[in-house]
Amino acid sequence: MDPSALPEPPPERTGTALRVTRESAVLRVTLNRPERQNSLDGAVVDELGHALTRAESDPDCVMMALEGAGGIFSTGLDFSSAAAEVSGGASMAAGGEAFLNLMRRFTTARVVVVSCVDGRAAGGGVGLAAASDFVFATGRSRFSLPEALWGLLPCCVLPFLVKRTGLQRAHTMALGTQPVSAREAERWGLVDEVVDDPEHALQRLLVRTTRIDPVTVGELKAYMRALRPDTEETEEHALREFTRLMSSPVVRRRVGSLATAGRLPWEVRPDEGGGRN
Hints:
By secondary structure, the chain is an alpha/beta fold. The protein is 45% helix and 15% strand. Helix 1 (42-57) links the parallel strand 2 (26-31) and strand 3.
């Protein structure tokens, strides 16, 4: 019997932040908290990791498709959750390491990972896309790295973004902080194809992907990682820098101000709370 003729299972939730469904050979994962701009905290990153594990452990699954609900792909780090952790004296090292490991797993998984971007992708949302095997984006999509506005750097994102865009384009995004259009992101290599309907592109890709042995997918990814100029040492350096910056007084002040007063970083005066030491 043709597997596509079988009845589809009902939607399954992997916690409150994700909507996960299994459709034919694709595990569809939707970031499903648009009221928080599909931002990422420790729980969301964990759920994404569990979803990827589910896809890899299913012998009939060849692809994990990631998307965001509500016209937003993901805006990256959930600063409200980060503010609570920072005010409680918690270290952000564990969260940064978990997110870095998730992106690394995207590049080594035995399934093809596809990001279908329809709307805004910022910060860690750009990282999820950059670490994916394929990125399909609608024309209204925008990509940005606003971390510098917070006194941060997109440390964990950049090793994966550089692989796609090259060093100068990644530098431009990180320093400029301005959104990049889908068409420009396609020219830079961050987006593989700008489409009216990502679903059509996904199905077209699936036709070819189902003909490739998952072992071959994993082997190709491992080989490609070996060809990359950056190494695990590069990623470890990214994590150290992320942890250092999240511990700085400037970042703690700006993140804390968002939680207590709802003020964005450019609304906080430089003389409030000391310098970066």
